[in-house]
Design brief:
Layout lengths: L1 H14 L5 H9 L2 H7 L7 H22 L4 H7 L17 H16 L4 H17 L5 H20 L10 H7 L1
Length: 175
Amino acid sequence: DRFEEDLSEVRRCIKYPSLPEKFLKLTDRNSEDVFKKFLKDEDVDWSSLDTVLEEFDGVMLRLKFKHNRKRPFKYFKERDEDIETATAHSPSFPSGHAAFAYLLCDYLSDMFPKKSMELQTIAEMIAQSRIENGVHFPTDIAAGRFLGEQAAKFVLAKESINESFASRAHQKTFV
């Protein structure tokens, strides 16, 4: 029943999107660009985040292939439903874009507490875009959000950002 509710919600979001087409296309590439655009006038050392994001991507991919959930568009195709969606090549669960969005949101909110509400809104919009693009279920988003928020706590608890996911031991600790 939960799966059918999830699939029905994806169907509804594709048919009646709440976000502009331009935003859906932008976020389909990656979530980091939206945060960069929002904080363009702030002093953020994005290069210091590169290693963390790269290593977190490895963690997320391991989780995706462990659960190996098919994307919504594959279920639509199997059911002969003519619903046009974006496509993706990795499994659906958990949502990597949502995880990255909430990791960045919480990490950047720690740096810019006065902007935390706007950063939270951006993360929520990115997560919603994944459903409206037809590449994730709401449950994928919920899991991605949880993982992103936990990753941010993990990163913020380390003395150095480069210490967070840089070692296999730290990745295993996080997972």
